[in-house]
Specification:
alpha+beta; 8 helices; 9 strands; two-stranded parallel sheet; about 200 residues
Length: about 200
């Protein structure tokens, strides 16, 4: 079955940091449980009202979960996935920078900033609930080799063969982002001591 003609439908529960659990983790959609939900584009073109919306979403993008301990996101390089509400979408103008965006949004700095600003809007005080406009207000560093390395490591994490390897790569990416943000040694240590256990717990669900 072609992803182009039957794009996978991604719910927030399918998204872990650098890991797409579509087809692995079932999800409730329209009061039914689905293991690997897809949209029939031809049927939507013929009978639906979302054809234009689907066309706009079937492009390279980042998909970000809501209500999470860390900012959980996946990168859809082929542009074949469709977000299911309330999944957030980031569509970069320069697709060559997709992994740079992923590494900064998935960084401890972004997580801590979002937690301090927006945790009160989540169902639990230990979670972050982001809106699309709030993503635009998260900090970004100046361009640097460290940010480049972080982007490469985030990409590697997305194809890691195990969660153990994935977590290690994400931590390494986070350390590079700390360098890109020019954090002091003290701030870096405190931030990683807070963020790392939160990251690890996301893979225990």
């Amino acid at each position: 079955m072609s992803d182009k003609h039957y794009p996978p439908l991604i719910t927030t529960g399918m998204i872990d940091p650098a890991l797409n659990r579509w087809g692995v983790r079932p999800s409730r959609i329209l009061k039914s449980t689905w293991q690997a939900p897809r949209i029939n584009r031809q049927a939507m073109d013929e009978t639906g009202t979302l054809s234009e919306w689907i066309d706009k979403r079937c492009t390279p993008k980042l998909l970000i979960a809501t209500q999470s301990r860390v900012i959980e996101l996946i990168v859809d390089e082929p542009g074949t996935m469709l977000p299911c509400m309330p999944v957030l979408t980031v569509t970069p103008k320069d697709t060559a920078k997709m992994w740079h965006i992923a590494s900064v949004l998935g960084s401890p700095v972004a997580c801590a900033t979002a937690m301090s600003r927006y945790s009160g809007t989540a169902l639990t005080t230990d979670a972050i609930k982001l809106a699309a406009k709030q993503l635009l207000k998260l900090p970004i560093p100046i361009q640097s080799n460290a940010w480049d390395h972080a982007a490469d490591l985030y990409r590697d994490a997305s194809i890691a063969g195990s969660n153990t390897a994935r977590i290690e790569l994400l931590i390494n990416s986070a350390e590079q982002m700390n360098t890109a943000f020019d954090l002091s040694d003290t701030d870096r240590q405190r931030l990683m001591a807070w963020w790392t256990p939160r990251l690890q717990r996301t893979f225990e669900r």
